[in-house]
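COURSE: Structural Biology Practicum
ASSIGNMENT: Worksheet 4, Part C
STUDENT ID: 0417
INSTRUCTIONS: Below are two proteins. For each, the amino acid sequence is given first, followed by its structure token string. Answer the questions at the end about the second protein only.

PROTEIN I
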Amino acid sequence: MTFRDNHLSLVEGRHITPEDINVVIISEILAAENNVNIGDVLEVRPAEIGVNEEGLAENALGDNAPSTSVTVIGIYADNVLRLEHTQPAAGIIANQIFADHSTMTSLGVAYQGQYEAVTFHVNDPSKLPQIVAEIWQTGELDRDYFFMQHNDGNYMRISSDLLNKAVYFLV
């Protein structure tokens, strides 16, 4: 569920750039429910879904979690219809906020120079298996701690179909 996969789309404002500090992109539903616009400043704190004694979902980090002020620079729409009425509020995609890395480090949910995931794009999907093999061959990544998941967007299946199909003309 990302912008790249077209599950989400920016409907107002702009995307986060590497130069941005303390900025966020929020959903159009969250913006409408809270009367928030591009340029507004919000106070945010991290959330972690937990369950209280009554069995209800809550923020396990509580009100003692660190907070920071951020500026709304973008508003996104969810392009995929989802039935979310049974999910905890923190798990609903419309409640997800996208933030720059410095904001995440100030909230204690990321660390400078450390990433949970990195996405790379290649110009020629046919070379993806070769590129993945070359990355492993460098020895820079420890297979006990890292894994690579590659998505060629069905290129391999489509390209082999195109190369192996005969063309017939009916007269």
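PROTEIN II
(use this one for the questions)
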Amino acid sequence: MSLTLASYNIHRCYGQDGHYQPHRIRRVLRELNAQVIALQEVELLHDAPGLLEFFCDDSHLTAIPGLTLTREAGHYGNALLTSLPILSVRRIDLSMPGREPRGALFVTLEYGKKPIVIIATHLGLRPAERRAQIKLLLSTLEDEEKTVKQATMTVLMGDLNEWFLWGRPLRWLRKYFNPSPAPASFPVFLPVLALDRIWIKPARKIRHVKTLRNRDTRIASDHFPLLAEIV
């Protein structure tokens, strides 16, 4: 058996041409062919609230919203799409005073008749934010692993916004998960930064991690989607 995971910052469905195109994002999601997809910069407009349902139409995916911010136009934040059975869902507040609200989805799924823990998130822009958020995530992970004692795998994925390769957040994550491949995913016109990450414990389950680069993904968002195949 193999499992495909993906993380994708969809940039509110605004592509590199400046057009709002949910259909284009949905087409990319189908191209990913993943059983678990973490989405960032999801905006559910008040006059068109069914975006996540639209993404899941005609597929085996179910949407779990993790919205963190209410704007005049609508709600905004993260989401997780999955075709696996959902065992539990927790929403963790990662917001820092004076900064844009942030959060994480802690979701337990069933894979191979056993639980796996998935954390989907989008971290802050300032280094101090990310340090505090990673500390909170790792602390919550340790508590979650005690609760889900039979979990065969733990995954942290999303747009971590961490460009300091030897900064403390990445060092802490390497220590907890062991090193993981990190191809550059941002910006799509010249990808040089590995902002999008998929961390897996145990790391030996990773077959490969790659970005999906094609005609659609070069225009649909400012990030390339990141894919990981797990064995």
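ANSWER KEY EXCERPT:
Q1: Residues 127-147 form the longest helix (21 residues).
Q2: The first strand starts at residue 3 and ends at 9.
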